[in-house]
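Residues pack. One example:


***
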Amino acid sequence: MSTNASILIADDDIDLTSTLSEYLSGEHYDVTTAADGEQAISHLRHKKFNVAVLDIKMPKVDGFEVLKFIRSDYPDTKTIILTGYADLMNVMECKKLGADDVIEKPYDIGDLFDAIAYVLKK
């Protein structure tokens, strides 16, 4: 899968963002990471992203607020929620706010790659 698509990963789990960044960069994605929602919004204001992979529970600004910001200010950016809190209420809220996909942690890296490829084709 060779692409120049730009991906923002926002999660307060530094090990996860580092691992995902390494995997996705290896697949030729342009990857930027954020340790919290506030940093994610700052990155979004300064760079165009094709896909944002967001955690729900983050310090300062949570994933729901980042998702709302993306939908209102950058509606062309596709969003994938990657969360350990994928109960029915959170999934419904993510979909209501316009998330393109929701993946529960722990996840299979292949499932995430498939989800990214899918939302990029939408």
